């Protein structure tokens, strides 16, 4: 009775998993193919019994890489390209490990994973977007800076460094108050930050910066809050 209860509990865990769970024997025959796997690969369990493990990988190279790594260290974690019943490809993040019998002999292997295609595409779009904006910032002739709520610099572009005469390595120890000229004694950083939160429109401000060599520069610009 306890054995049946344990098997039933294990079956419920496998079938309720959001990750695909697939097990193969030493000959590559399907031994386990949970509901998440059936939905993802678009196979029912009856049809999948006719398949071999290599049939679920998009390329022979991917399948051979999995087998090679399992033979080398009995477990493997990676991202490989899989293929659905209709030929659609997807990128799967998975872990695989050998299965052993009661005599500690290898009887097959199991894979647990999920489709990360959309996640990786989103990450790539984000990287491309970040690169685009960084290129725009770095090549801009305007002075661009980013500071935290305490006035410490997070980022300045090349034009900022060239105009004020600082090196990039010096920025991490610099505060916005260090470069505001005494000619701008009317300018209060905290009041200005508060105004950015409260004003619906951010008017152009004029402020005097002091370059590293002591020269004063009259700058005109605006700012925005980064939430």
Describe the 3D structure:
A five-stranded antiparallel sheet has the order 2-1-5-4-3, with helices on both faces. It is of the alpha+beta class and about 230 residues long. The radius of gyration is 30 Å and the shape is elongated. It has eight helices and nine strands. About 35% of the residues lie in helices and about 25% in strands. The two termini are about 55 Å apart.
Instruction: State the secondary-structure class.
Output: alpha+beta
Q: Could you tell me the radius of gyration in angstroms?
A: 30 Å
Counting H and I runs of at least 4 residues, what is the number of helices?
8
DSSP E strands, number: 9
Order of helices and strands: HEEHHHEEEHEEHHHEE
The strand line-up of the biggest sheet is 2-1-5-4-3
Percent helix range: 25-40%
The fraction of residues in strands falls at 25-35%
Short description:
With 227 residues, this protein is an alpha+beta fold.
Present the secondary structure layout.
Blueprint: H1 2-16, E1 20-25, E2 30-33, H2 35-41, H3 45-48, H4 60-73, E3 75-83, E4 89-100, E5 106-115, H5 117-139, E6 145-147, E7 153-156, H6 158-164, H7 176-179, H8 189-198, E8 205-210, E9 216-221
Antiparallel strand pairs: 1-2, 1-5, 3-4, 4-5, 6-7, 8-9
What attributes characterize this protein structure?
alpha+beta; two-stranded antiparallel ribbon; 26% strand; 227 residues; elongated; 9 strands
């Amino acid at each position: 009775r306890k054995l049946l209860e344990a098997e039933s509990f294990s079956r419920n865990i496998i079938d309720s998993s959001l990750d695909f769970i697939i097990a193969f024997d030493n000959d590559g025959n399907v031994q386990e193919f949970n509901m998440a796997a059936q939905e993802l690969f678009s196979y029912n369990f009856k049809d999948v019994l006719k398949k071999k493990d290599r049939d679920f990988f998009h390329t022979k190279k991917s399948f051979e890489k999995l087998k090679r790594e399992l033979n080398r260290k009995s477990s493997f974690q990676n991202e490989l390209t899989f293929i659905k019943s209709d030929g659609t490809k997807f990128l799967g993040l998975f872990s695989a490990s050998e299965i052993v019998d009661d005599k500690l002999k290898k009887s097959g292997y199991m894979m647990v994973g999920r489709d990360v295609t959309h996640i990786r595409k989103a990450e790539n779009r984000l990287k491309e977007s970040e690169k685009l904006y960084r290129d725009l910032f770095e090549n801009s002739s305007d002075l661009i800076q980013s500071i935290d709520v305490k006035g410490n610099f997070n980022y300045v572009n090349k034009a900022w460094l060239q105009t004020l005469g600082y090196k990039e390595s010096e920025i991490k120890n610099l505060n916005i108050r260090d470069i505001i000229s005494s000619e701008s004694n009317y300018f209060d950083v905290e009041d200005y930050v508060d105004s950015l939160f409260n004003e619906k429109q951010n008017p152009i401000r004029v402020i005097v910066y002091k370059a590293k060599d002591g020269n004063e520069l009259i700058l005109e610009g605006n700012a925005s809050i980064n939430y």
